[in-house]
Amino acid sequence: MADTNWPTQQRRRVIGKRVDRIDGPVKVSGAAKYTADVQRPGLLYAKILPATIAAGVLKSLDTRAAEALPGVEAVHVMTEPGQPINWAGQEIVAVAAKSEEVALEALSKVKAVYEPVKPRMDDKDPSKGEGRPREREEGQVEQAFRDAEVVVEGHYGADVVTHCCFESHGQAAEFRDGELYVWASTQNVSGYAGQLTETAGLPANKIHVNGEHMGGGFGSKFGPDSWGKACVELAKKTGKPVKLMLERDQELMIAGHRPSAYADVKIGVLKNGTVIAWESKVWGSGGMGRFGAPPLPYVFEVPNRKTSSQGIPVNRGPARAWRAPGHPQGCLITMSAMEDAAAALGMDALEFFLKNLPHVAEERREIYREELLTAAEIIGYKQKAHPRGDKTPGPIKRGLGMAIHTWGGRAHGSACDVTVNPDGSVVASIGTQDLGTGTRTVIGIVVAETLGLPVDVVQVNIGRNAYPKDGGSGGSTTVGGVSASSRRAAAAALGELFEKVAKQLGTRADKLEAVDGQIREIGNGAKSVSWKQACSLLGQMPITHQGKHAGGDSELTASGAGGAQMADVSVDLETGIVTINELVAAQDCGLVINLKTAESQVMGALTMGITYALFEENVYDPLTGRMLNPDMEFYKLAGLADVGKLTVRMMTGKGYDERGVVGLGEPPVISPGAAISNAVANAIGVRIGTLPITPDKVLTAVAKGGVRV
After folding, report:
1. Interacting residues of 155 by C-beta distance below 8 A, sequence separation 6+
2. Is this model's pTM higher than 0.85 or not?
3. How far apart are CA 470 and CA 551, in angstroms?
4. Does one domain contain both 599 and 685?
5. Which residue, 53, 295, 492, 683, shows the most beta carbons closer than 10 Å to its own?
6. CA dihedral 416, 410, 654, 349 (to 10 degrees)
7. DSSP β-bridge partners for residue 136
8. Using CA atoms, how far apart are residues 187 and 222, in angstroms rounded to an integer?
9. Is the Cβ–Cβ distance between 152 and 1 less than 8 Å?
10. Residues 6+ positions from 243 with CB-CB distance below 8 Å
11. Domain around 347
């Protein structure tokens, strides 16, 4: 068998280089088909009636007029009379009709009568918490605060935001010849069918899932949800294909939220900058579900620490994992408190962070030091840094801020088939999904590198549960899983090919290598054959081998990623507008397979971070519980003019590459909110404790004690 270890840097031909996405042409040309693009003969269109109240009971439901409307094929009740309503937009009835217009008209004829109660909407008041607070204490906290020479207190937090996937949740479903075919926008192609067996009345092996392209999930698209199951029910009732995609307002109201989190923090430090004590009380809401408290203190494991957390149930759509669950909130709270402590001491923030690196995990101390210094060099920290509050004249104030973050990124279980055909073509098949991150290209690169071929020779098949099983894309686990399984599959196939070529070249298989489209004896180019010549030795029978990765760390994969980010902002004291001048990320993730898509991942995360730091907020009517901005006009996202200069430095080479592949999808989105918040405080001289940092918050803070023009 060919070597499965990653090649050394000197021997890599493709891995670690900037490789274009192999699906780029079909996407930019519009040829890529997403769930919303599915068109089947006789297709019906389904729509969902949302609840108009946020709390109460559905008293009665009359669907007869909707069912009688010409063009309506089926109605499926999703909330029965007598059942509770827990959020505005809750799914009441689904209707399938011959056109979208008829389906919408049918919904208008459904008579739903509610018994409303006043919704619970306030998640910012800690007195509204339910249940016993979860408390934890380590070290001698009270004594440490007595020993502290400076004690700083602050209030910090992040409001709830939605996932806001550009492709809304939904699927198309069709029963055919006793089996179910599903086209789904999902982060879990291989695991999707198993969640539909009860609804479909079929075993998982008779449910065929297609998810070749999908437009973002961020943690919210692992299962079919109630609407996916309703789509199957409607297809079963009508015997026709049905497509059900959430409308944009429903997408923002019910398809997933990142929980809010607010904290009161007290931090004790010595005059030399060493943090010795931490106390925090955190609260927030995951809707009507459980509140998962963010990790506090974050990254910096203060030796004497006491934490308390409590959830507040509110009547809004359910929380879901949102790109690094809990970490952006924990990072914001901790890094804000750290920079506030540095400012109270009159100490440079970078010096303060470096001083406290002994509090981070031992294996990451030098990595964080290198990343902080790298980010500082790129952003021009020495030239731009100043004490809190920009004292230069004029209304525009400039500031710098920083944050560090961590994440796991351990590879999930994965299986991949690699087939080498007699004509020299290569096919890699794996039941994974590409959320837009470049997973297809990663698989192609790994197989091409292993076989010594250009990437465009490899055909990559993903997005169907008929292919070998792969894990769901969550927790930044995908790149490790697919790279390990595809490497092993390709190496096994190559090993078999080596056996055939060795006989022709008069050598041993273990003395051969595949390089630059040739199979040759190591160190002896005179004994070689072209790739196509080698494959012709297969006769009429292709080689297929399956590679597997059981999940977790291995000789090919590892866990534990992190990074440092610095923000350079300008704040207009007259308008309150915050402008991003530059946002710098120094990010590690072990061995980088594709430098181009890795950098793209980080840039996307920075853009997402700028968005939640400055723009994104769910606005609710406190009396009715309805979301007031469930659209792309008033639910603000950062545009091209808002992001400023984004600079990414992937930490690669000695000390990083030999770790193997570590997931990257989530970690770079963690720090932007904290770094930007710190930069704004550095610019205007006062802390704006909660995100998003909107102009009204800036003007209010400045009026209460910020710097002056």
Report:
1. 262, 263, 264, 265, 689, 690
2. yes
3. 10
4. yes
5. 683
6. 150
7. 307
8. 5
9. no
10. 35, 36, 38, 40, 43, 44, 45, 46, 170, 171, 172, 173, 231
11. 257-409+558-703
Q: Where are the alpha helices (DSSP H) in 270-362?
A: 327-345, 349-355
Place of tokens 């915050």: 578
Distance CA 144, CA 177 (A): 71
Neighbours of 517 (CB within 10 A): 15
> Hey, what amino acid is at 430?
I
Residue by residue, DSSP assigns 154-210 as EEEEE--EE---SSPSEEEEEEETTEEEEEE--S-HHHHGGGTHHHHTS-GGGEEEE
Sheet holding 512-515, edge to edge: 512-515, 518-521, 524-530
The pLDDT value recorded for residue 151 is 98
What letter represents residue 80's amino acid? E
Q: Count of CB atoms within 10 A of residue 176's CB?
A: 12
Segment holding 671, helix H or strand E: none
- Averaged pLDDT, groups of 10, the chain, 709 residues long: 90 97 96 96 98 98 98 98 98 98 98 98 95 95 98 98 96 98 98 98 98 95 97 98 98 96 98 98 94 96 98 95 97 98 98 98 97 98 98 97 98 98 98 96 98 97 98 97 98 97 94 96 91 96 97 96 98 98 98 98 98 97 96 95 97 96 97 98 97 97 79
Establish if 156 belongs to a structural domain: no
The domain boundary, picked from 220, 245, 270, lies at 245
Tokens coding 344: 């109270």
Distance CA 51, CA 32 (A): 34
- Indicate the pairing of strand 426-429 with strand 458-461: parallel
| Residues 527, 416 within the same domain | yes
Q: β-strand 305-311 against 275-284: which pairing, if any?
A: parallel
Amino acid at 517: G
Retrieve residue 537's tokens. Answer: 């030795």
Is the backbone of residue 476 left (phi > 0), alpha (psi -120 to 50) or beta?
left
Q: Where is the domain boundary, 549, 570, 587?
A: 549
Identity (one letter) of the amino acid at 489? A
> Residue 15 sits in a domain of what CATH number?
3.30.365.10
Indicate the SS3 state at residue 457: helix
Residue 553 C-beta-side C-alpha neighbours within 13 Å: 9
CA atoms within 13 A on the CB side of 233: 17
Q: Residue 247 has which token pair?
A: 């409308």
Give the C-alpha separation, 341 to 352, whole Å: 9
Q: Look up residue 141 and give its two tokens.
A: 């906290």
Report the alpha-carbon distance of residue 166 to residue 161 in Å, rounded. Answer: 15
Is residue 205 located within the same domain as residue 98? yes
